[in-house]
Design goal:
Length: 284
């Protein structure tokens, strides 16, 4: 198995950058999710689950730690620009403020904003994009301390990722979805992995070879990662990314109905290091 793609997302929920190599540490890819948007209408750090057009904005990390942002309409700004918040708010149709990542000690920064619904179950169904007869993911399968934290905070304090520092998926999963959904725009940018791995020796009847990696570690480049749990897919995989990757609910319908809700696997960093496209992935 070898690394085929590497991605970094400088701003939470925006289109990321495909890179030739990445450096990872305990919090994930260096330069990943170092900025996010605060919802000035309902409070809290928000992503594309709540503000869909974020998925149509592109972000590129600059040398000074700031980020260049391109809106869906082609306007370009940076996080250092005085009018960046106004420009982005107009593009999103929602008042937001760009905020750099804070220390884990700044708990108020990460505290959840107001929910959209008083019914917690309906709030979950909306976040995961589930229709009435579909199950929501088994959140009890995730570490209890993580779920306690996420009940109060939008992300683990000190980070802007949803649950884990890394998410990996296989080229074979993408190929399977393209074959299963020929009328849909299947693109890796819908699924937002950190690492894409080519697993050519997987069984032909296994559409998601990455799920067999759960509970195992992998040496890749100079780093080592641990695959923890499958990644249950939410409403974000239905969002439009650009004019050719359009809003498409059938992608999520298929994942829930046929793939037991998961595509990709979450991972932790066991040993920091550098990973390059083409590196061999050795699973223990």
């Amino acid at each position: 198995m070898r690394v085929s793609q590497l991605w970094r997302y400088p701003v939470k929920s925006m289109i990321g950058e495909q890179l030739d190599s990445i450096e990872i540490n305990s919090t994930g890819v260096i330069g990943d999710r170092v900025w996010a948007t605060r919802d000035l209408e309902r409070g809290g750090i928000r992503g594309a689950k709540k503000i869909p057009r974020l998925m149509q904005c592109a972000s590129r990390l600059l040398d000074d730690g700031h980020v260049e942002i391109t809106t869906p309409y082609g306007a370009v700004t940076t996080t250092r620009a005085s009018n960046a918040n106004e420009l982005l708010s107009n593009a999103l149709g929602h008042r937001v403020q760009l905020e750099a990542l804070k220390s884990e000690a700044d708990l108020e920064h990460f505290r959840r904003g107001a929910p959209d619904h008083d019914d917690p179950m309906q709030e979950l169904r909306n976040l995961f994009g589930r229709i009435n007869d579909e199950p929501i993911p088994n959140l009890g399968a995730f570490p209890r301390d993580l779920m306690v934290t996420l009940a109060e905070y939008e992300s683990p304090p000190g980070t802007y990722y949803d649950m884990f520092p890394l998410m990996a998926m296989s080229e074979q999963s993408i190929t399977h979805l393209k074959h299963a959904l020929p009328n849909s725009s299947i693109d890796v940018r819908r699924f937002r992995p950190s690492i894409v791995i080519d697993s050519p020796l997987h069984r032909d009847d296994d559409p998601l070879p990455e799920l067999s990696w759960v509970g195992r570690t992998a040496s890749v480049g100079t780093a080592k990662i641990e695959f923890v749990i499958g990644c249950p897919r939410c409403v974000m995989v239905t969002r439009a990314v650009n004019g050719s990757i359009h809003d498409d609910r059938e992608v999520l319908r298929y994942v829930v109905r046929e793939l037991n809700q998961d595509v990709g696997v979450y991972a932790n960093v066991v040993q920091p290091g550098v990973i390059a496209a083409g590196d061999e992935v050795v699973i223990a």
